[in-house]
Every structure is written in C-alpha cells, then in structure tokens.
Design a protein that fits this description.
- The protein is of the alpha+beta class and 787 residues long.
- The protein is built from 23 helices and 29 strands.
- The strands form 7 sheets. It has a 7-stranded mixed sheet, with no helix packed on it. Strands 1-19-20-18-17-16 form a 6-stranded mixed sheet, with helices on one face.
- The chain starts with a strand and ends with a helix.
- About 2% of the residues have low confidence.
- The site of zinc ion has 7 residues, from helix 4.
Length: 787
C-alpha cells in the first residue's frame, strides 16, 4: 500500500483510510486452514451501494471435533442462508463483524469442510467497496466499483479469514454491466455475456445487459490481497519474459500509458535479478480507479489512483512513476510472496517494498539516484519520529515505510551487496507463498553470512529512535593526531502509552563508521565501531593539518549529527563528498552562516556546479538568508538550470528574497518555463513579492491547467492571501473543477469578505451536484472552526 499522505502537496486535507487502526497486533489463533474461496458477486446497485454475494469456502479442520467455523464478515452484510453438503442449511450466528457457522456434525482433525454463504451486501461507500456513479459533465468521472483491500478492508464485502497468516486460493466471479471491464487477481478464465434479463415488467426500464467475468488466483496468497475492479477500462498489454503485463486505463488516457507504465517490465527484470526470485505471479496488471488512496498491491493486480501524468509532468519527476509504481510492484515479492505474519511486523511488507523502489533507481541511474531516494525517506522519517517515537517492528508503527527503507539500506551497506542480496534470496525462498516475522529475516542473514546480527535487530528494528551524535574535534599539530570525541546524546524519555506499551530508545547505538580526514598531503581514513555513550577516536599520522573531516563517510549509520566545524572544512566536503546525505548535512550547516563569505561562495559554487541536481537545488535554497549581492546572481543562473527541481528551488527562494530583480526573474519563469512545478513556484514568488501587481498572473494561473493542479493551487493560495473582486470572480469560475476554490472562498467569507460569502451562497444551489457538495462541505468546515 502506498498512501498519498506523505507526498500530497494539495492544500486540501486528503481523506485516507491509510491511517485506520490496524487490527491484529499479534498473530491470532484459529482452528482451521483456509484452502479456497469461490467468490461470486453481482447485482451491483450504485444508488443503494449494494450487491449480492455468494461465497463458498473450503477449509481443513485443524482440531478434532471442530463444530463451528468463525470467519470475518462485516456486520452490514445481510446473510440470507448458509448451506453445507447437498445444500443442507446450516445454523449460524453473527457476533460483531464475524459469522459463526455451526457444522451439521463435528469435523475431525484434517477433515475438509465446505459451506456456502449467500448474502446481500449493503455497503457504506468506502468500507470494503467504493461505488462511484458517472457524473455527466465532469470529465474522467466514470461509473465504477472497486474493493479497497488492505489491512482490514475485504471482510467488509466478503466473508473470509482476514488476518494475513492463512493463505488461500480463490476464484472471483463478477456479474456487472456490459460496459464495465472486470479486473482481479490471477488468470482470466472467462468473460461471457449474460442472457437478457427475463421478465422485464411493463413500466420498468429494461435492465442493462451484463456480462460475467471469472478470474482465478491459483497460487496461495493472503486474503487482504483479494481485489475487484469494475470500471469502463481499456487494456494496454505487453509482456515481460512469459508474463503478461497489463495496464487498465480509461480510454481517454491511452496516450499516457506507455510513458508512465512502460518502465514496469524493466522493474520486473531488475527486481528479479536483485532478489534472484523470478516475478512470482501469472500476470501483472495495474489498474487505475477514481479517488484511490494511492496504490494497493493486490496480488498480481495492483490498483492505483487515476492521476496519469501528461508528457510535460515528467519534467518534475512525478511521484507516481518514481515511487508508486516500483513500490507496489516490489510488494509482489515483499508482502505478497512472503507476507508479514501479523501487523506488528508490517514493515516487512512496507519497508522492504519502499526500500526496493530506491534500489530500482540506483540500479538504473547510479549512486546519486539511490542516495536521493533514501534522503527523502530520511527527512520523512525524522518528521514522523519527532511526532511519535515508535520502533519499526511495532503495532501501528508510523515509520514502517521510511525507517524500514533506511534500515534495509543500512543493512545492505553493512553486509555489502553480495551477501545482502543472498540473504534476501534466502528470506524469499525459505518463506515462499508463506509468512515471516522480523526474526525470520535476521535468521536469513545468519544462514547466509554466519553473522548474528542480534545487535542490529535489537537497536534498529525492536527499539525506537536513532543515535544523536555530537562530535568535537581537537588537532594536535605536534603529533599529527586528530582526536574526535563522540557523544551519544539521545534520551530515552518515552512513557508507557495507554495500552501499557513502552518503547526503549537505546542509550548506546552500535555500528561501524568511517572517518575520512582530508589534508594537503592526502586523505586518511579510519574505520571505527561506535559502541559507547562517549568515546574518543584518534586518527594519527596526519602529515598536515586537517582541511576536511567527514564523519561517517558513505552515511553508513542512520543518525542526527552535530559537529561544529570551520567553514573551510565544510566547503571542502561539499565539493568533494559524493554522498548526498553528507552533502545535504553540510549545506544545512553552511545555510546558517549568512555572514560568512566563504560559506556563500561554497553554496554558490555548489548551486551552479554540483554534479547532481538535488545538491544544486539544496544549495540554491540555502542561499535564502545570504546578502542579495551574493544570492541574486546565483539564483538568476539557477533559473536557467537544466533541472526543473533546481529552477523550482530558485523560484521559491526568489519569492523569499524579494525585490525588483527577484520579481523580474520569477516573472520570466512564470511566463516561459516548461515545467508545471517551476511555473507554480514562480507564480507564488511573484505574488509574494508584489501581491498587487501580480493580479493578472494570479488570475491567469486560476485557469491554467497542470498536472495535479499545481499551478491552479498556487494561484488559489495567492488569491486567498490577497483577494480582490477580480480574483474572487476567478475563484467562482473554477468552483466546478476541484474543491479547493470552495475552501478558499469559505476561508475568505469567514474573515468577513462578503463577496466571497455571496459567491458561496449562490452555489449552494448549483446545478452540478458535486459543486453543491463541495460548497456545503466548505461552509460546514468553516462553521466548525468558528467558535
Ligand atoms: Zn505498500
């Protein structure tokens, strides 16, 4: 699963079910082995959000005298009948979100049991299934129904065993209107038109023609990966080796398919090569749907949000291709082939999938691209950890993606790629089509390398936090020795939560780091093991005084680093250190030295000449506080950088710097830049520098289309900061395009803007139902905020 929460730049809060409380802290006990489910659904009703279901479950008893079976089944599913062998009715009860089926006679140990549950599902949209009607007049809003799946979704529409540790096979048979394509897991068995509905009564409109589609998942998988999508979709297909690779999109999105999804076969090849395990399913499909939470790795049949980038959006490296596609694909190994045994080890799914996405870009574009991916994870991990500190392997951990990826990258650096990938191969093959815990991964490393990494697992996976290191240097020129005092300052302040859980932050983190000392007479490296709260590292034999000290070359340890250094050392490191985390740390140090001309020139040099765009962009952003005479020429040069990320950082910094020259540079970018993100930042900058003179640009921005509406959103934000009557008219004109204009008008109205209020009131009765909905929601939201 990959939710948008972490990356959405929209001002509108994203509704998401990704933050639902997971159920299943520990592996639950049950007394059968789920073998197969035949799931038949039909009669979907988009007005009532209902459907009919018929599920035949085959399982094997795991105890003598098994007289009743408990399945997970949402309470809103109305059971019509439960029948056993020869259609004999069986008694059942419905405690909570379960069904208890009483068998006609007790089953013995290892006896096979089969029964059928016939039911009507009346669903709350978004709980189990998502129903969408077509909205005439609204582009791309097609009729569809799909399942959410994930950690607690499927029992809300089918009776099944919901926990991840009992794998089964299944058939999914869906009868839907003829215009809708059905996509599910496994192999497409058949797709047949149904005979016309009989007995159409006079006065009733004839029912639309339907077809029945049957898919078969023939290799065992966890039931949270069962998927159904029915939507008007067009299939674009290619192959990777002997595996069909299918993309299901709306017909109008045809031209966007290959630039986006065309990377998939190469990713399948790369993941196969790295793990030594061939893509394990009979096909791979990626299907786009409306208003999805991001992506869900349903086995062999990933579901994705329908935001296909257009050609221009690739200048801004869209998250969709960068993270979403490789992440969900990696789950086909990590999560689907080998699955966490319970949700407390969820990081084995999410952390490893997230890690693999970075590995793909590293394999394709080299070291900087790999560092780039994990630097982003690092930032998001630090932000999450500062809100709530939880271990990686913990129920409801907030860092399963970010810290999971970072810890795997550390492990890879620690073991080296050969041993690391051999351990991953052992983990995957040992638990193929099965389940694993965090300790199973440790044992795979032990088996392959002979190394007991208990210490690594204890501090990085079972304990919380990270080392906060303070390094103090002292150089003795007589003996040519550099002494570094390293103190670990992290505090264990956590108290037990309401459930009694308390997580330890270790007083001491252990691990190897390399110190690299640069001198005029060459570089000296020393590898040391950190293993004490305070320790002294001595690097002797230096033939000249240090001109650079890199603490933890290659960033082998996840950490926060405090290390006061002369600007000269930092400047040298910035030009010489290839590691992006290290460079980024150096840039942060230099950014605060705004009165230091050497810091300014080091940043300016990196902004213009660094060999990777991310370092250039960070250096550009760091110039914000420096004197204009230093910053402006570099920012103007950065506006001509080949990378949109650098130009975007420059435009944002121009907005912060202000003044006529900055305004002119930002205005030029707004008019001419080919990137959506750069134009959005430039528009924001222009409006921040001069809100009155920028009105024509903001007005134009309101009606400028862009991927994910980045330009329109920047214009809406500018209009809300500094409204006038033309801009309010402009907001009113685009009320039908997305919800943000309604929210902006409601905010303005709550501040006493009567024109905004009048506009909103006028649209409470808008002819477009979605506009009425948005306007009412926006008004309600403002009322809630007003005391
Ligand atoms: Zn995921």
């Amino acid at each position: 699963m990959r939710s948008l929460l972490a990356t959405a730049s929209s001002l509108v809060a994203q509704q998401s079910n990704a933050e639902r409380i997971l159920s299943g802290r520990a592996t639950p006990s049950h007394d059968y082995d789920l073998i197969h489910q035949r799931i038949e659904v039909g009669n979907f009703d988009w007005d009532a959000t209902s459907f009919d279901g018929n599920v035949t479950t085959t399982l094997v008893s795991l105890r003598p005298g098994l007289d009743s079976i408990v399945l997970d089944m949402g309470r809103r599913l109305a059971v019509r009948s439960v029948t056993g062998a020869r259609s004999a009715p069986l008694r059942f009860t419905r405690p909570g979100d379960t069904i208890v089926v009483r068998l006609a006679k007790p089953a013995g140990f290892r006896d096979t049991v089969r029964f059928t549950i016939d039911y009507q599902g009346r669903i709350t949209h978004g709980r189990g299934l998502y129903f969408f009607k077509a909205e005439p007049g609204r582009p791309r809003h097609h009729q569809q129904v799909y399942s959410g799946g994930g950690t607690d979704g499927n029992p809300n529409w089918i009776p099944t065993y919901g926990a991840p540790h009992d794998k089964a096979t299944w058939d999914l048979i869906a009868r839907v209107p003829a215009a809708l394509t059905v996509v599910s897991n496994g192999r497409l068995v058949s797709d047949r038109p149904d005979p016309p509905a009989r007995g159409a009564r006079a006065g009733r409109p004839p029912k639309p023609r339907t077809h029945t589609v049957r898919w078969s998942q023939e290799r065992p998988a966890s039931t949270y990966l069962i998927s159904l999508v029915a939507a008007p979709l067009r299939k674009v297909t290619e192959r990777w080796r002997d595996v069909p690779v299918d993309y299901y999109v709306y017909s109008e999105d045809g031209p966007k398919v290959r630039p986006l999804f065309g990377v998939t076969p190469d990713m399948m090849e790369t993941f196969t090569r790295l793990t030594g395990v061939k893509y394990p399913w009979v096909k791979y499909s990626q299907t786009v749907v409306r208003d999805f939470i991001g992506g869900m790795e349903n086995v062999g049949a990933t579901t994705l949000v329908d935001w296909l980038p257009d050609a221009r959006a690739y200048r801004d490296r869209p998250w969709y291709r960068q993270s979403l596609i490789p992440h969900e694909l990696a789950h086909q190994w990590f999560g689907n082939y080998v699955t966490t045994e319970n949700w407390s080890n969820y990081w084995l799914n999410e952390g490893l999938a997230e890690f693999m996405a970075g590995q793909y870009w590293g394999a394709r574009h080299g070291r900087h691209a790999e560092d780039d991916f994990y630097l982003d994870e690092y930032r998001r991990f630090m932000a999450a950890d500062s809100r709530r500190r939880v271990p990686l392997a913990a129920f409801n951990s907030n860092n399963v993606y970010t810290k999971g990826a970072l810890v795997m990258q550390m492990l890879k650096k620690h073991l080296g790629p050969e041993r690391f990938w051999a351990a991953i191969n052992r983990y995957l093959t040992r638990h193929a089509f099965g389940n694993a815990t965090s300790d199973d991964l440790r044992r795979a490393v032990l088996h392959v390398t002979g190394k007991n990494l208990d210490w690594f697992w204890d501090q990085w996976i079972y304990a919380a936090g990270y080392p906060e290191l303070t390094v103090t240097p002292a150089y003795d020129s007589v003996s040519g020795t550099l002494a570094l005092t390293v103190r670990q300052t992290q505090m264990d302040t956590a108290r037990a939560d309401s459930a009694g859980a308390r997580f330890i932050t270790p007083a001491v983190f252990q691990g190897p780091v390399t110190v690299r000392v640069g001198t005029a007479a060459g570089d000296v490296r020393k590898r040391v093991r950190l293993d004490r709260r305070e320790q002294l590292i001595e690097i002797s034999g230096l033939k000249a005084q240090p001109s650079m000290v890199v603490f933890d070359e290659n960033n082998a340890m996840l950490k926060a680093l405090t290390f006061e250094q002369p600007t000269r050392w930092l400047a040298n490191q910035l030009s010489r250190d290839p590691d992006l985390w290290n460079r980024s740390w150096v840039i942060d140090q230099l950014a605060g030295r705004t009165g230091d001309s050497l810091a300014a020139s080091a940043l300016a040099q990196a902004a213009r000449g660094s060999d990777y765009y991310l370092s250039r962009a960070q250096a550009v952003a760091a110039l914000r506080g420096f004197p204009l005479a230093v910053a402006l020429p570099t920012l103007e040069a950065a506006m001509r950088d080949t990378s949109a990320t650098v130009r975007e950082a420059a435009a944002t910094t121009l907005g912060a710097v202000g003044g006529a020259r900055a305004h002119a540079a930002a205005l030029g970018a707004w008019k001419r830049d080919p990137s959506y993100a750069v134009r959005a930042s430039a528009l924001t900058a222009v409006a921040l520098i001069d809100s009155v003179r920028s009105r024509p640009q903001v007005l134009a921005g309101l009606s400028t289309p862009s991927y994910r509406d980045v330009i329109q959103n920047a214009a809406i934000a500018a209009a809300a900061r500094s409204p006038d009557s033309t801009l309010i008219d402009g907001l009113e004109k685009i009320l039908g395009e997305q919800q943000l204009p309604s929210l902006a008008l409601a905010t303005l109205a709550s501040r006493g803007d009567t024109q905004a209020l009048t506009a909103l009131v006028r649209h409470r009765d808008d002819s477009r139902p979605w506009v009425r909905r948005w306007v009412l929601e926006a008004i309600e939201e403002q009322l809630e905020k007003t005391p």
